[in-house]
Write a structure and sequence with these properties.
The chain is an alpha/beta fold and 262 residues long. The protein is built from eight helices and 16 strands. Strands 1, 2, 3, 4, 5, 6, 7 and 16 form an eight-stranded mixed β-sheet that branches. It has a six-stranded mixed β-sheet with strand order 8-9-10-11-14-15, with helices on one face. A two-stranded antiparallel ribbon has the order 12-13. Helix 1 packs parallel to helix 3.
Length: 262
């Protein structure tokens, strides 16, 4: 079975949701025209890291994002891993939230970022989630994570052991640490014997620069695609049959010793 993924490496207009929703909607259309089964976006694409302005900018209960992604998925008949967006819930609590839609516009998964990044003050404004995200798209078992989660292999293993074939990581990973990003993405693919689709943004905000390097990595840690530093779509076809040849000889999930470390 093959599965075509479109990596949407976009710039994000800080504090300008209207512009960002337009960017995402157009990218969905472009990915569908290119024949992708799923399109994937980066982290916090509706607002960027305008954390001090969340009272004005955050999406109430994710309503606008869910309406936008559902409509775009259905109209273009393409699945969407919706990066993540700033949302606000009852009581005024803010979250960094992923929404996933199938090609018919149905919500198939959501996830609130579990690990909050203090270096960018995320923990001062946003509430941490406490549940993982495991779902299917086009019959492919999948899981999603957000940015700083990448540094916690135990969290990936907790979710991946449910049988994830494709793992999505959406991020705003700054330029100075991009080599760590690439190393960690490869490691998560190897240790979980899964394809990893890791999407980062490009551009700048008030305090940080971002240089992309969105990656698609196979279960052996080989980089299938690196989007470099350009804005735009990168299309990659995943051959899911490769999973059998990797998992058979080295059954890491079977050989685990959870009695010692879980």
């Amino acid at each position: 079975m093959t599965f075509k993924v479109a990596v949407a490496q976009i710039d994000i207009a800080l504090g300008d949701p209207d512009r960002n929703y337009q960017t995402v909607t157009q990218a969905v259309k472009d990915a569908a025209k290119a024949g992708a089964d799923v399109v994937v976006f980066p982290e916090m694409w509706n607002t960027g890291y305008a954390l001090t302005e969340l009272a004005r900018l955050a999406d109430q209960d994710g309503w606008r994002t869910k309406q936008t992604l559902s409509r775009a998925a259905k109209e273009n008949q393409i699945a969407i891993v919706g990066g993540s967006v700033a949302t606000v819930r009852a009581g005024g609590q803010y979250y960094n939230t992923t929404y996933v839609y199938d090609e018919n516009g149905n919500l198939t998964g959501s996830y609130d970022k579990v690990h909050l990044f203090g270096l960018m003050h995320e923990d001062e404004f946003i509430q941490a989630g406490n549940q993982g995200s495991f779902f299917e798209l086009k019959g492919v078992k999948s899981a999603s994570f957000i940015c700083y989660d990448l540094r916690f292999p135990e969290w990936f293993r907790t979710i991946a052991k449910q049988g994830a074939d494709v793992i999505y990581v959406v991020a705003e990973w700054p330029t100075p640490r991009i080599e760590q990003w690439e190393a960690l993405v490869k490691a998560r693919a190897i240790e979980n014997q899964a394809f990893v689709v890791a999407v980062n943004r490009v551009g700048h905000d008030a305090e940080n620069s971002y240089n992309g390097h969105s990656l698609v990595v196979d279960p052996l840690g080989n980089v299938i695609a690196n989007a470099g530093e350009k804005t735009g779509l990168t299309l990659v076809e995943l051959d899911l049959e490769e999973l059998k040849t990797v998992r058979g000889p080295i059954p890491v999930f079977k050989d685990r010793r959870p009695d010692l470390y879980d």
